[in-house]
Amino acid sequence: MSKAAEARESDFRSLVLAVVARVPVGKLVSYGQVAALAGFPQRPRQVGMVLSGLPEGTPLPWHRVVNTRGYVPSRGRWWGAFEQIGRLRDEGITVDDLGNLDLEAHRWRP
DNA sequence: CCACTGACTGGAC
DNA sequence: AGTCCAGCCAGTG
């Protein structure tokens, strides 16, 4: 990979994390929205990859990022979905045991 | 280089 | 309203 490409990917990660860090308590954003705010509207999948690589103790509010369909990623097939659901409930968002929630009712609009 | 995969999405059925 | 399909881009073998 070229140095320019490496720098671009490094920026992508930094920008994505910066956007996620700005999401207010009790608000939700979709992966596509985070990608667009970071300046890469064609790469929602890469946003998911960045978040999947976060350490367990990260201060980032990654649990406020859900998909546009209105449910927590992988609906339980993913090992962290249960924790994400619990954190969202703690912030006052209604989520059922399958991870379904009302994205429009809590969407963050910067 | 090719094929497959994934914490995604919008549109078609 | 629930599912499926094609497009998407980077990571991995």
Give the helix/strand layout.
Elements (H helix, E strand, L loop, with lengths): L2 H19 L7 E2 H8 L5 H9 L12 E2 L14 H10 L12 H4 L4
Parallel strand pairs: 1-2
The structure holds a DNA duplex (13 and 13 nucleotides).
Low-confidence stretches: none
Report the span from N to C terminus. 34 Å
Strand order of the largest sheet: 1-2
* Backbone shape: globular
Whole-number radius of gyration? Answer: 14 Å
What is the SS-derived class?
mainly alpha
Mean pLDDT: 92
Instruction: Give me the strand/helix succession.
Output: HEHHEHH
- How many extended strands? 2
DSSP helix fraction? 40-55%
The amount of beta strand, in percent, is under 5%
Major β-sheet, in short?
Answer: 2 strands, parallel
Number of helices: 5
Written description of the protein model:
- The chain is mostly helical and 110 residues long.
- The chain contains 5 helices and 2 strands.
- The chain has a two-stranded parallel sheet.
- It starts with a helix and ends with a helix.
- The model has no long low-confidence stretch (mean pLDDT 92).
Give a brief description.
It is built from 5 helices and 2 strands. With 110 residues, the protein is mainly α.
Considering the chains and any ligands shown, give keywords for the structure:
two-stranded parallel sheet, 4% strand, 110 residues, mainly alpha, DNA-binding, single chain, 5 helices, globular
